[in-house]
Specification:
The structure is a homodimer. By secondary structure, chain A is mainly alpha-helical. Chain A has 16 helices and two strands. Chain A has one domain (3-326): Farnesyl Diphosphate Synthase (Orthogonal Bundle). In chain A, 76% of the residues lie in helices and 1% in strands. The first copy, chain A, has a two-stranded antiparallel sheet.
Chain lengths: 329, 329
């Protein structure tokens, strides 16, 4: 972790032993007696992400009554799910790098990656099913369905220059924020928690996830691959319009907009295109405005936290929210 | 359905109303308000397969106590799951056709196909989770995990000419027979069925699935694409060794085996290779021997049925077993 990750370390500290148990659960799930599969899973084991989703889950569990064994398992479930989507995303995006390593499909090929993604989804469901928690099974199934709808809607609007902010927000709500919200909601499983507190935390999670994706999309434009540890610029290359670009198009005069759309629809000069678009969205303030929108989502998330009884843990969720906004990777 | 499908029609008849309800459930699950997703799902709706897995499930339910609403839903679950694997398989195999139509990824691209496969998996889990049946969730999760392990093991042994019959049978047991067995087992959910009868039916399903895959692999070599309605020859092209080819290699003298392996490892002349291998496995009796092995699995499946109280329905499962052996598509 870098200097910028100091707030994340601070948030992690009070639940370090519980997060260690999530890691152990993940390691157990990511082992296999079949040597090929174990090698493949070994690649996944190396990809240490920030574990934001299990962290959120454990925090919500702690706030709503305490971290039970089932929450540790559910923490592993949401991370497995997230890993599954990353593996498939990288195949779709033809990404080169992920979490500082070569992307899995670059080492093992698309076939193995598609199947490994399927396997990780299956592990998530299977670990969840073994807990025999009706509510958790439902949340998980509904969330994966929503994430897939979001991803598919995104595919449907590739190179669609008419897409507006509302559609953009709906898609990121489905593909990203839904899992953040679900992680919070899963923290309530097993506790007779106040429904209002659960809704407030879920709402916080959804806001956090929305801000996370807006920032992610901005970093895809202006971030540094060495810092991010993953391939950037894939949104433009794949024709996925993100918030600053949508605003740029909508605020440009017709003739300029037409030229911009032509340029975005082109297939060559990926790096040049990224620099040009970056310069325009910077100069005209759209990048700043996107960050401000992310900030606004973070603000809403914090407002939602106001409906939960205050504690060190709730306070740390505020720190986590600010971290999501200011992260560079 | 063709003339060869007459036995299937006969088996279908006594459960036609229940199978109609499975179709309705499938249609409901394969609709979506998002027009792009609905179009994509429309392609899936058109792909009318033989519905062997739901049929098996309903038969087992009928034998063990009756077809309940939950079995109709579970019938849709296993078919959704099967469809999900077909969509991903066709991307992996770079197949051109499926169920008489252009393969989905040929029309919509790999990205949409990978995501649609994920979505169909999610729909299967979600429909199952909504039933709140502990046992069904567990069976489903375990089975998908096993299917993925089978598919991954197959990838691991592509162009591995040392693979033997035992490994081949293990892989098809995981990737194919497990879902046939699970379909039978799911027929017992909701009934206080005699455990011995459930095991006997699950064993029958596994044998049927094993025979099904052996026949499928033989048809991939010698079948007619127009009859099969899907791309054939993909196993050889993708370096997947199937039973007749494994036997051919193991029974050839060292020098000839070396030449055969070289030819199989080559990348050009896919059709020529298929003709040559087909001629060899035919002339030397390996194709016949593979069908005999499938026949032996069908025999074992029928023996297992002997442990279930006889009825018209059990008798029809015998007809279904013979159909699996003699089908040409």
């Amino acid at each position: 972790m870098s200097e910028a990750d100091a707030p994340l370390r601070r948030v992690l500290e009070p639940l370090r032993p519980e997060m260690e148990r999530v890691e152990e659960a993940l390691r157990r799930e990511l082992e296999h007696e079949n040597p090929f599969l174990d090698d493949l899973l070994g690649h996944s084991r190396k990809l240490q992400g920030k574990r934001l989703r299990p962290l959120l889950l454990l925090y919500c569990a702690r706030i709503l009554g305490g971290v039970l064994d089932l929450h540790v398992a559910l923490g592993a479930v949401v991370e497995l799910l997230h890993s599954a989507t990353l593996v498939h995303d990288d195949v779709l995006d033809e990404a080169e790098r992920r979490r500082g390593e070569k992307a899995l499909h670059r080492v093992w090929g698309n076939e193995a990656s598609i199947l490994l993604g399927d396997y990780l989804f299956a592990k998530a469901y299977s670990l969840c099913a073994r807990l025999h928690l009706r509510e958790a099974n439902l949340i998980l199934a509904r969330t994966v369905e929503e994430m897939c709808v979001g991803e598919l809607s995104q595919i449907a609007t590739k190179f669609d220059f008419a897409i507006d902010e509302e559609q953009y927000l709906r898609v990121i709500g489905q593909k990203t924020a839904s899992l953040f919200g679900a992680a919070c909601r899963l923290g309530a499983v097993g506790h007779a928690a106040d429904p209002e507190a659960v809704e407030a935390l879920a709402r916080y999670g959804t806001c956090l996830g929305t801000a996370f994706q807006i920032v992610d999309d901005c970093l895809d434009l202006e971030g540094d691959e060495r810092v991010a540890g993953k391939s950037l610029g894939t949104d433009l290359a794949k024709g996925k319009l993100t918030l600053p670009v949508i605003q740029l198009l909508r605020q440009s005069p017709p003739e300029e907009r037409r030229r911009l759309e032509e340029m975005l629809a082109g297939t060559d000069g990926v790096e040049e295109r990224r620099s040009l678009v970056l310069r325009l969205v910077r100069e005209r303030g759209f990048l700043r405005r996107s960050f401000e929108q992310a900030e606004e989502w973070i603000r809403r998330g914090k407002v939602s936290l106001g409906r939960v009884r205050d504690s060190l843990y709730v306070d740390n969720l505020r720190v986590l929210a600010d971290y999501v906004l200011h992260r560079r990777a």
